[in-house]
Design brief:
The chain contains 3 helices and 6 strands. By secondary structure, the protein is an alpha+beta fold. The longest helix has 22 residues.
């Protein structure tokens, strides 16, 4: 592995680390900035993903739709205060096309409720396309593929 490849892998690790820190620290207003202007974000089950079904529990096709989601979380939705802790591992480059990379990574999310109770909230994989922009790597496409089809009805904070 040459130095350029090592640098690229470190940049990707930084992207995923910063992404998790944004969600886990409740700085959700910065979350859309991890995506390109015309992006794709979807949370779906493994069964739907493998069957090629387009539906998702959360579905957005632009940075503006992601901003609307954050606004709704802050101003309209009512849900019990909670925190997430993302553990992301196994970041792997699966393909390359010009300035874009197809990347997969495993994730595990622990949810902590206001009373201190913790649950294993979600596990799965990210199936992503990242693009190199003037400001660094950004997600052009992020499919959050959940291992379980049993989804808590309270999927408030993005994964």
């Amino acid at each position: 592995m040459d130095l350029a490849e090592v640098a690229r892998r470190l940049e990707l690790e930084g992207l995923y680390t910063d992404y998790a820190a944004c969600l886990d620290s409740d700085t959700l207003e910065a979350w859309p900035e991890f995506f390109t202007e015309t992006c794709h974000y979807r949370v779906t089950s493994a069964e739907n993903y493998e069957a090629g079904l387009p539906l998702g529990l959360i579905y957005a096709t632009s940075q503006n739709m992601l901003r609307d989601r954050v606004s709704a979380l802050r101003e309209a939705n009512i849900y019990e205060p909670q925190r997430y802790r993302h553990l992301i591992s196994g970041i792997r480059i699966d393909g390359e096309q010009g300035r874009a990379l197809d990347v997969t990574a495993n994730f595990l999310v622990v949810r902590t409720m206001q009373d201190g109770g913790m649950t294993l909230f979600a596990t799965g994989r990210y199936v992503d396309r990242v693009e190199r922009t003037e400001t660094g790597w950004k997600f052009a496409k992020k499919d959050v593929v959940l291992d379980s089809r049993q989804i808590d009805t309270l999927l408030a904070i993005p994964l």
